[in-house]
Design brief:
285 residues, alpha/beta, Spore Coat Polysaccharide Biosynthesis Protein SpsA, Chain A, 9-stranded mixed sheet
Length: 285
Amino acid sequence: MTRIHAICLAKNEGDVIAETLQFASNFCHKIYVFDTGSIDDTWQQVQKAANNVVVPFRQESVPFSDGLRAQVFNAVRDNFTIGDWLYILDADEFLAKDPCQAIRIAEQEDAQQINTIQYNFHFTDVDWQRYQKGLESRETPITQRRRYYRFTNIEQRLFKIDADLTWPEQSNAGNPHGYMAPKGQKKLKKCSYKIPNCHYQYRDPEQIQLWLKRRRSARDVNPHNFIHYLSLDTDMRWDRYIAPSKELNYYNNVGIFQIRLDERIAIFKERFSTRDFFRFDFLPH
């Protein structure tokens, strides 16, 4: 039986972390959660969710780096078996398809890595109007509150465990914020199938403002963190993240997504000549 071990970093995700853990528990064998210094009730929510699947790994106020996930991986590696899969779980994401299907395809192809197609959901002008009228409530699941999305990129998310899989904790000149994913002694073969992934990064005004502060503090510690959010160095207004609904796609929670041609062209232009352009296999299917 395929076992999936998830590693989740969380900070100030108290409004969504319980939903995330409950959803991921449907297909994960273990979920190790590292709270990196929340000032809301994230850690309390994680402890409340603790069971034979959800493991509160640690709470420690530390600056963000990709190497923090590596710390968890190396600490619990003895719990993995060769052939298991490692899942990088963000605290605000929900896979739109069963990952076990992707794992079956990956194993047929002798692949060691499965990527996700990232669809970013936004707080829009429509949502802002509802919020001002008092029609928004965190009691409603986030997958029902935020419906407008756009395709953003491809992310590395699942890795097959074998003896050669390593995850360095240290940073260096080539990776100044740490290694964002595990490494094999040879290049990891990617599965041809990519899992659609719903990312709820912008949920409501209070959460967005906390998110901005978290990103800004991470950049203050290390300017190499979140280099795609350079505007945080000068602008911390949450309301500039209100997105025009007419420029986005609407999701009916049925697992079917749209990627418009203008989105593909815009992302190609945005990513061209950047450091991660050549890892961006951006024509998903």
